[in-house]
Specification:
Chain A: It is found in: Cell membrane. Chain A: Residues 76-267 form the ABC transmembrane type-1 domain. Chain A: Pfam families: BPD_transp_1. The complex is a heterodimer of chains A (281) and B (291). In chain A, 77% of the residues lie in helices and 0% in strands. With 281 residues, chain A is an all-alpha fold. In chain A, α4 crosses α14 (246-266), α5 (72-103) packs antiparallel against α11 (198-214) and α8 runs antiparallel to α11 (198-214). Chain A is globular, with a radius of gyration of 24 Å. Chain B contains 14 helices and two strands. Chain B has 291 residues and is mostly helical. Chain B has helices at residues 2-7, 10-37, 54-60, 63-93, 99-109, 116-127, 132-139, 156-181, 185-193, 198-209, 211-227, 230-235, 247-258, 261-290, and strands at residues 40-41, 49-50. Chain B has a single domain, classed as MetI-like (MetI-like fold, Orthogonal Bundle). Chain B has a two-stranded antiparallel sheet with strand order 1-2. The chains are: A mainly alpha (281), B mainly alpha (291). At the A-B interface, α2, α5, α6, α7 and α8 of A face α1, α2, α5, α6 and α7 of B.
């Protein structure tokens, strides 16, 4: 029996795993749980008993204040708008580039591809000052358009690289057949490459959505007017404005986390496969 | 050469050119500009005044810059070390099927969906003077450890670092879980039959097979460490007394709070210089797997 156990370890049945993991998991979730507690407590309860106390009151004041006076609703709208535009535009442009690089004999193909990827790996700090002055010079300084364009420009390299890897693996026979049917390069892209690339596009879309929605530094670089701030930047201001009203700040933070949490739970598989891109070989 | 060119239809050139030009305009051109701005003194309004390498000489004597540089080293080692060790341990522990195990896994990578800025706010709640961290220490009878975590220069950097690790561990775990899936289980079984214990099996059999993932994790961790900005900005803005300043936050402050755009560009060039080696490492690996 003991040799059997040694040869075929079945650690999933061992209670020690759960003995160790249950506390770790609870500890891991504790910041989220406490923020949830703080968000649903009343101001007086927090002021009287401290942030660390368990809830003795239930109130949605934090949420209503954050959404109305705090401008969380407006900034959430800005974030959704920027994210939707930037994700669609960057995936469209990168699928063009990836198609060209993966299915055609472009000279210096590999150099172009790696150069594009390298652009995405640069520390954003090296771009901030010039990007701020370029957007101002183009007359789009302090606009959501600028934020979308900057996000697209910075993300393209990575998305192109990932899509290229996927499109290169598509079977040649499909392309031969389409060419024999008289389809041109544009038709092949639209009718064959895009539909076949749906899994990797979905993974990238899930990943890009969380990245762009969660961005702070680009928003702070190109935007000046508070009314245009996406949720991340707006929350930091909220924290300054309502510094003693922790229930408002906590409620705002939770609202900010909801959209990406939805993406995560709906597309968990795509999300995880997106994270693995570039690392699973 | 011309025959190869002729085979690429015009439309395909357009397909490639448009995204490439967009990236060149918004990434490569600004990056190049930063290098020339680093050699100037510029307030963003008048003309940039060329000062040669003066900004870099000033940096070498700037105590805040030196603090930021030292903090960045602590950050790479602390943030990188803790999240890699934590992620690897969790990956090895949770690399098995089971409904509870997948629940644990989801809990560990759940923080990843919360933005770094919002994570910072979450942890401000945790670290508040009357918050859960001090509360828990009180319950455990460790009152002497209670403190103002984010206002105490001695611990503030580590307090922020722990918050960042909380969010990063899940990502590293996912990378290692994928790596472990690619390892050959029969090798481990054979070693078990030969009497190797779990510790030996891990270091001698599993770890060598994870070399590729290790490389990626290493490069990604260092690149991420040098980029770190949001969570520090959300939690401390570099304070108290610049004790949690990282190169990225100091650069941002110099650029957009103080308005020393040339000096800020010089800091950005330093960040670039520190990152470039790891970027090349990552690229070289991607180039190899791309074939």
């Amino acid at each position: 029996m003991t040799t059997q156990a040694l040869r075929r370890p079945r650690p999933a049945r061992s209670p020690w795993l759960h003995v160790a993991m249950v506390p770790v998991t609870l500890l891991w979730l504790s910041p989220i749980v406490f923020v949830l507690f703080v968000a649903v407590r009343s101001y007086d309860d927090i002021a009287g008993r401290g942030l660390g106390a368990l809830p003795a009151s239930f109130s949605l004041d934090g949420f209503t204040t954050a959404l109305t006076q705090g401008g969380v609703l407006r900034s959430l709208g800005n974030s959704v708008l920027v994210t939707a535009c930037a994700v669609v535009a960057s995936l469209a442009l990168s699928s063009f580039a990836a198609y060209a690089l993966s299915r055609f004999d472009i000279p210096l193909r590999r150099t172009v591809l790696l150069t594009m990827l390298a652009g995405n790996l640069l520390p954003p700090q090296i771009l901030l000052v010039p990007v701020a002055s370029i957007t101002a010079a183009l007359g789009i300084g302090d606009t959501l358009t600028a934020l979308v364009v900057v996000q697209v420009g910075f993300g393209i390299g990575f998305y192109t690289f990932v899509l290229h890897g996927f499109m290169r693996g598509l079977p040649n026979e499909v392309f031969e057949a389409a060419r024999l049917d008289g389809a041109g390069p544009g038709g092949i892209f639209w009718r064959i490459v895009l539909p076949l690339s749906r899994p990797s596009l979905a993974a990238l879309a899930a990943l890009a959505t969380t990245w762009i929605f969660n961005d702070l530094i680009w928003a702070m670089t190109v935007l000046r007017t508070e009314a245009k701030f996406p949720i991340t930047a707006a929350l930091l201001n909220l924290q300054g404005g309502f510094s003693s009203a922790w229930n408002v700040v906590a409620a705002g933070s939770l609202i900010a986390a909801v959209p990406t949490a939805i993406v995560f739970f709906l597309f968990q598989k795509q999300f995880v496969s997106g994270l693995l891109v570039g690392a699973n070989k | 050469m011309s025959r190869r060119l002729a085979r690429v239809p015009l439309l395909v050139w357009v397909f490639l050119a448009v995204p490439f030009v967009v990236e060149a305009f918004w990434v490569f051109w600004p990056a190049a500009n930063s290098f020339s701005l680093a050699l100037t003194r510029w307030d963003g309004i008048g003309l940039a005044e060329p000062v040669g390498l003066q900004n870099f000489r000033d940096l070498a004597a700037d105590p805040i810059f030196l603090t930021a540089l030292r903090n960045n080293v602590v950050w790479v080692l602390g943030f990188g070390g803790l999240s890699v060790v934590g992620g690897l341990v969790l990956a090895v522990t949770l690399n098995k099927p089971g409904p509870l195990v997948s629940l644990y896994r989801s809990a560990i990578y759940l923080p990843m969906v919360v933005s770094l800025a919002v994570s910072g706010l979450f942890w401000r709640v945790m670290y508040a003077p009357d918050g859960p961290v001090n509360g828990a220490l009180g319950v455990l009878g460790l009152e002497h450890l209670e403190r103002q975590w984010l206002a105490d220069p001695a611990v503030a950097l580590w307090a922020v670092l722990i918050a960042a690790v909380w969010r990063q561990v899940g990502y590293i775990m996912v990378l290692y879980l994928a790596g472990l899936k690619g390892t050959d289980g029969t090798l481990e079984e054979a070693a078990a039959v030969d009497g190797a214990n779990a510790w030996q099996r891990f270091w001698r059999i599993v770890m060598p097979q994870l070399r590729g993932v290790n490389m990626v994790v290493f490069a990604v961790t260092v690149i991420d460490s040098l980029r770190t900005f949001d969570i520090v900005w959300a939690m401390t803005r570099g304070g108290p007394y610049n004790e949690t300043q990282l190169l990225s936050t100091y650069m941002f402050q110099q650029a957009f709070t103080t308005g020393n755009l040339g000096y800020a560009s010089a800091i950005a060039v330093v960040i670039f210089a520190l990152a470039i080696g790891f970027i090349i490492t990552y690229l070289a690996r991607q180039a190899r797997t791309e074939d």
